[in-house]
Design goal:
This protein is of the alpha+beta class. 34% of the residues lie in helices and 29% in strands. It has two domains: 112 residues, 2-Layer Sandwich (Double Stranded RNA Binding Domain); 40 residues, SHC Adaptor Protein. The strands form two sheets. It has a four-stranded mixed sheet with strand order 1-2-3-4, covered by helices on one side. Helix 1 runs parallel beside helix 3.
């Protein structure tokens, strides 16, 4: 696994970097050498926020955590990501998609948890909605999102001619997703 470590407003020393790499090695058993991980540390008030993102082929796995110390927030983020991977393993196995990189891990987990794990239900889509995507700029999309009291809003960006998405972040600010296709 390739691991990039970044500190935003934080100096990541060689000792701490080797600790991060050692902690991230546990994901090698899930993804092998195909994965590319990014670990980012930044200050958030008096705490440290750690974001861990792992990209394998076209799949992204992401977790973040906040704690008073960087190593604690890293461990929390790793625990969150492991929980997400365990939760998704049954869904990935049931779906007809290419999850070859997880096949060995799924087989190992099934063998160890076969006795005490109940079958997970696949999520059910309970509602479908169709709507016309209107051309507007990002600021107008944020306004529409707030007027509708939604946490996200899909719109057509007239500058690029592509579909974009604005969303409300946990910190109260807004994010803009501009997909490349």
């Amino acid at each position: 696994m390739i691991i990039d470590i970044h500190g935003i407003g934080i100096k990541v020393g060689e000792g701490f970097e080797s600790t991060v790499r050692r902690q991230m090695q546990k994901f090698d058993r899930y993804f092998g050498d195909e994965a590319h991980a990014t670990v980012r540390f930044q200050h958030e008030h008096e705490d440290i926020r750690t974001e861990v993102t792992i990209k394998v082929r076209s799949h992204l796995y992401r977790a973040e955590a906040i704690a008073p110390e960087a190593i604690m927030s890293l461990q929390k983020a790793i625990d969150v990501m492991e929980g997400q991977i365990r939760k998704q393993k049954t869904r990935m196995k049931k779906q007809n998609r290419n999850y070859d990189y997880m096949r060995e891990y799924i087989a190992d987990i099934e063998a160890s948890l076969a006795l005490d794990e109940e079958e997970e239900e696949m999520p059910i889509i309970t509602r479908r909605k169709s709507f016309v995507i209107a051309p507007m700029d990002a600021n107008e999309a944020v306004l529409q999102m707030e007027l509708l009291d939604h946490t996200f809003f899909l719109f057509l960006n007239p500058d690029s001619g592509k579909v974009n998405l604005v969303y409300k972040r946990l910190d109260g600010n807004y994010g803009l997703l501009e997909p490349k296709y």
